[in-house]
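Box 3.1 A note on notation
Throughout this textbook, protein chains are presented in two layers. The first layer is the amino acid sequence; the second is a token string describing backbone geometry. Keep the layers aligned when reading.
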Amino acid sequence: MSNELQKQETQAPANRTAYRRPYYTVRGNKEHYTVEVFMPGVAKDDYNVSLHHDELLVEGHKVLPIESEAKWVHREITNESYKLRLQLNVEVDAEGISAKSEEGVLVITLPVAKEARPRLIKID
């Protein structure tokens, strides 16, 4: 009988990456929408944000340094990959999109296209 702790872990197939869906919030007004995506531990350079037609795709990869000599008895903090797909229901100005990272939160600003903004029509 061995005195070492053993744990069987299920892993994704080697050719597929397992993604977690991050928590997120969306706020908006007539001029722009703000999407906050919570991906703790993801470095600024490990985010990817893209817009294809009316779909916003946000990806992030958390990579933790691993000591080559380490033999883990227990480890709950692991490398993770996040992926979020949002279907946009309003036309946005793709050239005006901006993103910044603040303490594990990616903040994306999506300006509403001028053509899609509500406007007041004056009656003569």
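Residues 5-13 have pLDDT under 50 and may be disordered. DSSP finds no helices and seven strands in the chain.
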